[in-house]
Amino acid sequence: MENMVISTRGLTKRFANLVAVDHVSIEVRKGEIFGLLGPNGAGKTTLIRMLCTLARPSEGSATVAGFDIRSEGSKIREHIGLVSEKMIMYAQLTAKENLRLFGRFYHIPQPELDNRVNQLLELVDMEKWADKQIGRFSTGMKQRINVIRALLNEPDILFLDEPTLGLDPQTCSEIRQFLRQINTTHETTLILTTHIMVEADNLCNRIAIIDHGKVAALDTSENLKRMVSGSEMKVIEIDIRNLTNDLASSIDALNCVKTSSRLNETHIRVQAEGEEVFDEIIDAVRNAGGKINSINRLDPTLEDAFLQITGNEVRDLSVAPGSMERPGLRKTTRARSAFS
């Protein structure tokens, strides 16, 4: 228990008739990168808000950095940083002015604060933009400042709610590299929510998959993938020369096919279950007039594990007030990837 920086027991949050977080019990070890995956509305952000003392639990208990989230919120806030999906900055102020403003909230002495701001700007290669207004920055530049803003108090635990959302691939890669750096160099514990499977796969030591407010699975990425490879489920990619939406729908309609994702103009990826799945799929494609170039069984990915664990039904999500979860219909597959 001494190595655990976060521990929850039956943590629950209700909004009227909606149970946003449902008796979650997890433990996060000091120095690890811990991922929270789940569909929109699954409860990830609400869970983070409780752990950051921004929302009071309806039931259960939790400690963060050894302090109780109900009675020792001010102590917890001394040890944590939060990078929320919504960037918290003032467009008219410069990068340095924004960081100084937030640094004062922690009562950091001015000489120390100035030194820390300069170090952090240098850390993300933003020192030459220090005296430019934030409002003129690109989204990627703003997010770099948003991340280091959460590091001003040198937190032991950093919460990151979709830190690469909407960023271009190069900026995403830079942010991930920076997160690895602060985790390795400063042994900062990172709690990361993301919808990007590659991000979770590459960064996280362990991953909790949250669905309907509950922990549906918790393990390393490799072990989660083995849940697919060790089952009757097969991951298959088919290259069809004349793939159309109707042809994709005919594959999706097969009883053996549990999920399907159209990858591009000619490729479709399916999870299928049964001994004769290859024959059934080939027959269905040919009967629909499809011309198969190739069909291959693949090693399962983290996305395959996610889809198998969370299911494939359409869900109409009612979003809790103040939860910051994005609303909408969720369909894990059926003709389209949930992460495309």
Report on this structure.
This protein has 340 residues and is of the alpha+beta class. It folds into 2 domains: 4-219, Rossmann fold; 230-340, Alpha-Beta Plaits, CATH 3.30.70.100. 33% of the residues lie in helices and 27% in strands. It is built from 11 helices and 17 strands. The protein has helices spanning 44-51, 73-79, 95-105, 110-123, 139-149, 169-186, 197-203, 221-229, 245-252, 277-287, 302-310, and strands at 4-15, 18-24, 27-29, 33-37, 59-64, 67-68, 80-83, 157-161, 189-193, 206-211, 214-219, 233-240, 257-262, 267-273, 292-298, 315-316, 329-330. Strands 7-8-9-4-10-11 form a 6-stranded mixed beta sheet, sandwiched between helices. Strands 1, 2, 3, 5 and 6 form a 5-stranded antiparallel beta sheet that branches. A 4-stranded antiparallel beta sheet has the order 13-14-12-15, sandwiched between helices. A hairpin with a 2-residue loop joins strand 1 and strand 2 (18-24). Helix 3 crosses helix 4 and helix 8 crosses helix 11 (302-310). The model is unreliable at 313-340 (pLDDT under 50).
